[in-house]
């Protein structure tokens, strides 16, 4: 251990919900997108799933809202070090979309892409089983554009760069294909509990 | 496979002949290959010098003998460790231009209540050691090839200064401009180093005869009007509020969205 002279740090909190190397951002919710926030109205938003599925499908705003409502209440973790506790996102569980398109058995991974062209890759197993959502509400209000509104993907058990803002679609693949940050040195999976921040972690 | 599209019956029909695949254009690919090895190894860095920049910021020079080298715009991760094993880690932009000195420099704001920046500003002295890993991320890197339009506010000028220094150190011919916002002249970081490439904008107080006000379209327009060969690659760094404002000014002035790289504090 390489102790830093004179460093004590913040008061220790016994928080089993805090992954290693993270701190509690409290009320803050930093915005870290690398691109210009798009002007995207709900009427211009759409979400598509294609690739290795039986029935590729595209939903517009109203069609997506006919699917069963679902919410995520819990924590989110950003690779830059902050975690935010007790957030509530409202939308639709990704499983409801998968029920429509029916992924092929050969599908193992997905590339999520945004209306800005941002991409991120995920194992399909991280997107199914009630672990991922398409959301348009935050704290009961419409999701602000700088946080990915009108609608974003959330995969809260992974670092938040996997939760693509302004989500436009998922393409299912039989292999892993790195997305935007993953090509820029970040980890292919990004599990905060194993501190998978950078490629090779 | 069959194609089905559920649409709102009152909405206009989808374009004929194709699925509703949105036109996406996030060009902004990373500029360089990133070394996974350099990014994963924690190295000991020894503080060799502290230089005051403004009342709230100082530059910390670190000796990192095995530093792999970086490009302007890249950052590192820095870790402090308490005697009980508690650690705090933060990402910081590199302020120094790449050189072969075996040193890197960081310029840090003294963040109120900041456990890492507070340590640097109130405890640290030459000879102290910390741990770093990096350089990290190629997205905001500038290899010195494309014309660079740099827009920053507050300590957002730090990675941009690395680019300005690199430009000077290498005697590069490629156009480079810096538009930097500060509350007042005393808070303008690197003030004595800024040259003719720089336009400062003061938001609260300014020297006699210099206007006070927020960065505006009138600041951006003359820079875009220069139209360098190949077009500007724009780099924006600052708070989220500033980044949103500056990037909208750029888009409104005609800078292509896919040639705007943004780094926001957080």
From TrEMBL, chain A:
Stretches assigned to the Oxidoreductase molybdopterin-binding domain: 37-181
Please give the superkingdom of this protein's source: Bacteria
The family database entries (SUPFAM superfamilies) matched by this protein are listed as:
Oxidoreductase molybdopterin-binding domain
The record's CDD domains line, in alphabetical order, gives: arch_bact_SO_family_Moco
One Pfam family per UniProt = Oxidored_molyb
UniProt-annotated stretches for the region Disordered: 1-24
- What name goes with this protein? Sulfite oxidase-like oxidoreductase
Q: Which organism is it from?
A: Streptomyces monashensis
């Amino acid at each position: 251990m390489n102790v830093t002279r004179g460093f004590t740090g913040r008061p220790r909190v016994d928080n089993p919900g805090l992954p290693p190397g993270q701190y509690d951002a409290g009320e803050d919710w930093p915005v870290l997108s690398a691109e210009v926030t798009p002007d995207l109205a709900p009427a211009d938003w759409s979400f598509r799933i294609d690739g290795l599925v039986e029935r590729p499908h595209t939903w517009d705003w109203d069609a997506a809202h006919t699917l069963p409502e679902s919410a995520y209440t819990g924590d989110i973790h950003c690779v830059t070090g902050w975690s935010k506790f007790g957030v509530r996102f409202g939308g639709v569980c990704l499983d409801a979309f998968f029920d429509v398109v029916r992924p092929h058995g050969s599908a193992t991974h997905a590339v999520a892409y945004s209306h800005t062209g941002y991409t991120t890759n995920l194992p399909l197993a991280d997107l199914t089983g009630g672990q991922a959502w398409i959301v348009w509400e935050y704290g009961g209000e419409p999701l602000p554009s700088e946080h990915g509104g009108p609608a974003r993907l959330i995969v809260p058990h992974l670092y938040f760069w996997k939760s693509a803002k302004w989500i436009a679609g998922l393409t299912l693949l039989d292999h892993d294909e790195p997305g935007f940050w993953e090509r820029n040195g970040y980890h292919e999976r990004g599990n905060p509990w194993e501190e998978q921040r950078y490629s090779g972690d | 496979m069959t194609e089905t599209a559920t649409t709102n019956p009152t909405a206009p029909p989808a374009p004929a002949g194709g699925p509703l695949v949105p036109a996406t254009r996030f060009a902004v690919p990373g500029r360089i290959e990133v070394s996974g090895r350099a990014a994963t190894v924690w190295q000991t860095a020894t503080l060799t010098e502290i230089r005051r920049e403004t009342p709230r910021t100082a530059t910390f020079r670190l000796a990192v003998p095995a530093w792999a080298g970086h490009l302007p715009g890249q950052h590192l991760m820095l870790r402090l460790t308490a005697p009980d094993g508690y650690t705090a880690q933060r990402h910081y932009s590199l302020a120094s231009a790449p050189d072969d000195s075996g040193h890197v420099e960081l310029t840090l704001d003294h963040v109120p209540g900041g456990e890492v920046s507070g340590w640097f500003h109130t405890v640290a002295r030459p000879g102290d050691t910390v741990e770093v890993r990096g350089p990290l991320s190629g997205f905001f890197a500038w290899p010195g090839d494309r014309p660079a339009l740099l827009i920053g506010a507050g300590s957002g000028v730090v990675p941009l200064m690395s680019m300005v220094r690199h430009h000077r150190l290498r005697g590069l011919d490629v156009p480079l401009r810096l538009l930097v916002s500060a509350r007042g002249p005393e808070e303008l970081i690197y003030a004595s180093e800024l040259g003719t490439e720089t336009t400062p904008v003061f938001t609260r107080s300014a020297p006699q005869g210099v206007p006070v006000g927020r960065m505006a379209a009138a600041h951006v327009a003359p820079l875009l009007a220069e139209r360098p060969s190949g077009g500007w690659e724009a780099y924006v760094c600052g708070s989220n509020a500033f980044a949103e404002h500056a990037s909208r000014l750029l888009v409104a002035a005609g800078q292509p969205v896919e040639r705007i790289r943004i780094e926001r504090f957080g």
